[in-house]
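User: Show me sequence and structure for the first protein, then do the same for the second.

Assistant: Starting with the first protein.
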Amino acid sequence: MILTLIVIFLLEVLVLSLMPMSVTQYKAVLNYRDYTKLEYLAKGALDEVIWILEDNWDTNAESAWHEEKHAGMYKYKIDKSGDLSKKITITVKNDSIQRTYSCKIVRRYYEKNLTKLADYPVYSSKDLKVACLDRINSNSTEYPLGTGKNLYIENIQNPNGLNLAVNGNIYINSGNVQSFIEGYPVVDSLLPIYDIYGINQFIALLKSKFDGKIKTEGNLHFFTLETLNFDKGQEVMFIEASQKVTIRDINFKGLLIISGVSTLEISNAGLDGMLIVLGPGSVSARNFTVNGSVSFLGCEIKDPLDIKVNHDREALSPYEVYLSEDLGGKASSFYGLDVLEYKEVE
């Protein structure tokens, strides 16, 4: 009996000693739950602000406190920070916690011309897939690699400090992920937006204005651009409306625009200038060297691009006279709102 009493006493001491720990853990769980609820409440408030600004962009106001049942309370403030941007402050709270978030909302329009494409060593309005990111360089940190969606990297070896402007996620198949983090800064850059299907007017204007400097090929089931079928003195070449286009075993100097092609395959080719690919077709590249820039608007990149790019923005200035033509179509029409720099304010 004495032994039983001793055991009971020890168990009571153990239970009493564990109670403060259990209470602390319980409070931590409740605290995390409340923090998460407030985080979602802030995102809901941001959606409300976006809806208000889509309806009336000129709105500048501070709301009263609104209560959301079982979540907490929120309020927001909309301040003008420019003709095309607003500064947003969102505050959320419950009985014990208060959190504040800030962001910038930018009003976006379709680009009037293609000039901004020369700012990027590689630009894609959709997913961008590259075999080796180390082989893409820019002579200035001002000009990043840009993609409107996700960036897929097959391999990382020797990071070169290239800035990345990525609107989606970054996926790395192999290589040193830590060296990627240290060697490729991700920058907050507002990527240009284009109306892909309104560019036909731009092409027609370009042909009529620079008729002597432009050569047009295509309108065939299959077309191959090789040394036998292009004039080395031509500054601009269009290839359009073909089922399959192959570019191989050439070194082209100038502006190469490919539009309305179902399949584009590039192999063992060099380019000194710019390549712009327009339309919903697929693209693949093997052993492709570029001194200039490459842009894909609305294209699907089939496999990781085996491409080497040396980007020098000043060297591309001769092509701005062609890129500055009005795109037509929906150019300059309202596209939508983008949220930038969304973060919690301490």
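Switching to the second protein now.
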Amino acid sequence: MTILQNKPHVLARESTTLVGLLDWAYRRQCADAMIGRGLHGLEAGADGDNGGAFSRGGSNAATIAMNGQLGCIIRSTGWQQSPDVHPDAIAVVGAVEMLDDGPSRWLVVEHARRGTSPTWGSEPYFVPSGVYRHDQGVVIRHDEVQHRHKRPQTVEVRACPVELHPSPAYVAMCRAEYRRWYLALEVLALVLDERSLTRWRVDGIGADSEPWK
């Protein structure tokens, strides 16, 4: 009989989609903005790094020297604090940075920051075209009609010129961008080492590959 090693931190992980994980890491944890951030070098020194002005055990001479170099006194608790970024969020940002395609990586990051996904363009529909959109959509013209065995007659024709909105070219552009974003998510799902996550378990992408179908 095989006994499985008990790993409660793995078994109890919360389920989410890849899109949901990105939203959490970028929009809620703000991991890309927090990683590597901290006090400026001089400020960090005055605040306690390497035996600075307010470090534990810092000498008076070091305090005076550092404050003189900085030009002011910083009284804070920065030496006791660090950005509260979850390790899972750091792992997600690291995986995104491994994506090769710059535009695709940009799409993933920007939509993760906003908690959105690319629009794919609604199905085109007809609307009054050009200036007729603001003129009740009606144009009047006079056409000559020829009936058999009768003299030509001029008749009034009321028409509403129409065009497709959004344009087919715009819809195609939106759907191409959506496909690029979705393909980047598929690659990210392969790049992201889910074994390194302690809180989350990724179950699927969380988006359709072609939602317009």
